[in-house]
Amino acid sequence: MKQLLKDVVCHGFDWVGLMPAVRCMFAGRAAIIMFHEIQREFRSELATGTSISLFEHSLSWLKREGWKIVSLQECLERVSRNDRSHRYAVLTFDDGYRDNVSVALPILERHNAPFLMYVPTGAPTRTLQAWWLGLRELIRSRDDVTVDAMDARFHCPDFQAKVSALARTTQWVHEDYERATMLTPTFQKAGVSLSRLNDAYFLDEKEIERLSHHPLVSIGGHTTSHSALKTLDSSSARAEMVDNRHYLQNLIQRPVRHFAYPYGKPNACGPREEQLANDAGFSTAVTTCPGQLDARRLNHFALPRTFVGHLDSQIAFQARMNGLQRGLHMLLGCRHAA
Questions:
Q1: Which of 13, 33, 129, 167 is the most buried (most CB within 10 A)?
Q2: Residue 312 has what pLDDT?
Q3: Per-domain residue ranges for the chain?
């Protein structure tokens, strides 16, 4: 229902011809776009990534609307000198999923679109406690699910019920990231192996090393274990960044300059983590906080991103890139202040 309402608003602005005015007033000159999985079997994966059709539409729309897809370094340089010859888009992919290569790469090559992949050490080494993959596997594989740590039971015999159950359990973890380890007994009882899911969904070391030589690809850091850094003490958080950077640089034999905070919201990272990323030798760090880039407020260690995925529609993506979301937030903020 929430997504339907968003689509109705977006279509309404487009239908009455207001989108060009919205773009002129609220769209930024540059945006970092965030993807995770690009899913060939979108529904069977419970719509947790980005569909191929939306991914292809996003790239085609960007080019058609005059956005130039560039590397993060080039984008930041152009924003800092207030280059207004184009709008600039940076494509980023978190976690190192196999389908970023098998599904997304041929499309990216067709568009000659550079991209940045942020890789946690635990994905290629198969030690990642990818609880989000475990929850998805648990819920999609059975019609009745019990999550003991939540004291919750779900009857989810169809697609919509499964999507709803997954959303509720995922939100429960996002409210307190230390809850992720509490899911282990549930996974063990259900026979859900996170190690097997790592093998199935993440690139291995040889694949990442080979991918790093592709002319369109840059590899960035994403911590060792994908922990929410704000929940760790300073020494542990620093080690998560430094060790991950050293691991990746040894693996690909190239500098690793860019970093993405796991989860990336204010309850997972903040000013302390910005300083730690700088100290670790990174040149930039991205969050998952929504927004576009503005030369007047450009913090290289707290860069916002525009997420594309889950149940997004084409019109919702277009509206977000045109600044409609920002405009509505500003309007509602002004009304609230008044």
A1: 33
A2: 79
A3: 28-127+217-321, 131-196
pLDDT tens per residue, range 305-333: 999 987 778 888 888 888 755 545 554 44
Q: Are 77 and 29 in contact (CB under 8 A)?
A: no
3-state class (DSSP) for residue 106: helix
Distance CA 301, CA 195 (A): 32
Instruction: List the CATH code of the domain at 28-127+217-321.
Output: 3.20.20.370
Measure the CA angle with vertex 216, ends 115 and 246; round to 5°. 75
Over 90: is that where the pLDDT of 140 sits?
Answer: yes
User: What's the whole-model pTM score?
Assistant: 0.90
> How many angstroms from the chain centroid is the CA of residue 8?
25
The CA-atom distances, in angstroms, between 152 and each of 37, 130, 180 are 28, 21, 15
59 vs 39, 96, 128, 148, CA distance in Å? 16, 20, 30, 42
